[in-house]
Design goal:
single chain; mainly beta; 2 domains; 4-stranded antiparallel beta sheet; disordered N terminus
């Protein structure tokens, strides 16, 4: 009888929520099946506190139960979301809100016909096609810091090598350069031998690339590859009709082409090695480290394209709704994509 009572008491002990010491701090878990003597107690406590796992019930964790693939997907996505949320500047600044309506936006007047924008980490650089200028806007408060002149057809913006480069939409196309460390003034002309009407611009760590839209119906589009010091320009026309946007994924250059509504992956010489069908008139994409997000202007959609691995070149999703209306440029802020 005494032995039976002892067994019941021991069983009761195992069914109580337990408290353990992790990193010098005391943690109490709600799970009655995870004791402080469990070698994974602190790992489970950390996952629970961070919101990565909620257990299998209000008081059970089921530590020995197998995890099916559907539950694993939930664990992985929660981990990714938490990593982004807790490590971002927004978390440090307590800025967990998102803008709700256009009336809640902070607005900065730049110059005539602003086109594409790019961030250098502190400031936003805006190409103003109508006024042939480039504006520098302080990202923290929207203050217009300065502007540079002498950039006819200013369209695409690239921040690389400590400089700011501008694609000039002209015939032939032009490439301009700005030294952010110098006082504002006139831009520097790097080259006037690019393909016709360069719009998108990217950098692969060695060379600058531009997507040249051409003149629809008369001059086909192209891609320009620019090497600095010494300056060389190579224009590639094969396979291109009306290129718009350009992006580098860390391994390859990709360009959107409105002539056949494709997202095209290029080799080092500008040859097309993969061509992915997206939406009508794909414009200026963004890369989030895993996928390329392509805004399709006419159908009001966004194509999400995987760039590497077994699903390389696969359209994972085509997004619509949620206010999409003639989307033109996508951007990634380290947390989520914006259009």
């Amino acid at each position: 009888m005494v032995g039976l009572i002892a067994a019941v008491v021991a069983s009761s002990d195992r069914l109580r929520a337990d408290t353990g010491i992790c990193g010098g701090a005391s943690f109490t878990l709600p799970f009655t099946d995870v004791t402080s003597s469990n070698i994974f107690f602190c790992s489970i406590a950390e996952a629970f506190v961070a919101g990565l796992t909620n257990g299998t019930g209000a008081t059970t964790y089921s530590p020995s139960q197998s995890v099916p693939r559907e539950q694993m997907a939930a664990f992985i996505t929660r981990t990714m979301d938490q990593s982004v949320k807790r490590s971002s500047k927004r978390a440090a600044l307590r800025q967990f809100w998102t803008t709700q309506t256009p009336d809640n936006l902070a607005l900065t007047s730049v110059d005539s016909s602003p086109r594409l924008v790019e961030s250098d980490g502190l400031d936003i650089w805006v190409a103003n096609e109508g006024s042939s200028t480039v504006s520098r806007v302080r990202a923290s408060d929207g203050h217009l810091v300065d502007f540079w002149t002498g950039a006819p057809g200013a369209f695409g913006v690239l921040v690389a090598m400590g400089k700011v480069f501008i694609a000039g939409e002209d015939t032939p196309g032009r490439l301009y350069q700005i030294d952010p460390g110098q006082a504002a003034g006139a831009v520097t002309l790097v080259s006037s031998n690019l393909g016709v009407r360069p719009l998108g611009i990217a950098y692969d760590g060695r060379r600058i690339w531009t997507a040249n839209n051409g003149s629809p119906g008369s001059i086909p589009g192209s891609v320009s590859i620019v090497t600095l010091n010494p300056l060389t320009v190579t224009n590639v026309t094969t396979g291109f009709t009306n290129p718009f946007g350009m992006i580098f994924d860390g391994a390859n250059i990709w360009v959107t082409d409105g002539g056949d509504d494709k997202l095209k992956m290029l080799d080092s010489a500008g040859g097309i090695v993969n061509s992915v069908s997206v939406g009508d008139v794909p414009l200026y994409p963004a890369f989030d480290g895993t996928n390329i997000w392509v805004p399709n202007h006419n159908p009001n959609t966004v194509s999400v394209v995987r760039v590497a691995g077994a699903f390389a070149g696969t359209v994972l999703a085509t997004l619509s709704g949620n206010g999409l209306n003639g989307p033109q440029q996508a951007a990634f802020d380290g947390e989520s994509e914006s259009l």
